[in-house]
Structures are given as C-alpha cells and as structure tokens.
Model the fold of this input.
Amino acid sequence: MKTISKNIKFLRQKMGWRQREVAELLKISIPAFSKIETGVTDVNINRLRQIADLFKVSIVDMFSSDFTGVKSGDTLKIEELSEKLHQRESLLVDLQMKLLQYYEKKPTIINIG
Done:
C-alpha cells in the first residue's frame, strides 16, 4: 500500500493541490486523506477508484512502483479497447431498434383455421 500512497501524494503535488483541497473534492476530512496519503490507512477499492478518477489515471497505474503520472501503454490500450467496445454496443443498440421498427411495421398475418 505504500506504493499507492506515494502515487497519491505524487499526483496531488503534480496538480499543485493541498491536502485540504483533495480532501474536500473527495468529501472526506483532511486527517482521513492525510492517513491515506501517508499509508497509515489502507484505501478501499471504491475510494481508490474515486481518487484515480479525480486525478484522471487508472486504478492499475495507482499500483505501479515506477508511476510518473503518464498513462502506460497498457492503460492506453485498455482505453482504446473500451472505446471500441462502446462503439460496438452503440451499433448493436441501433440494430436492435431497427429490428423492432421492422417488426412493428410488418403486417401481422392471422391464420383463422
């Protein structure tokens, strides 16, 4: 957890923010944030996600021991694949809508026997 704490401090300082500012953005107390940043308190996954989102980095990058604040190749690839997946999902929704519209317009044949 020391790596995560070190990276959080690095990101905060890179942004030029004080602990107070980050604590307010995270809606936690200054002492609570200080304990996260110094590694006194372990950070849970939800809080880690909130911190990663705040600094616009991935959770994976938060675990990196050689973190520089620059997105790694893996992070860029994940973002690229995520965007492609989103595009495919949008295409699928469009095709589903067209199929529904087709069936709504198609006359119903009733077989009376």
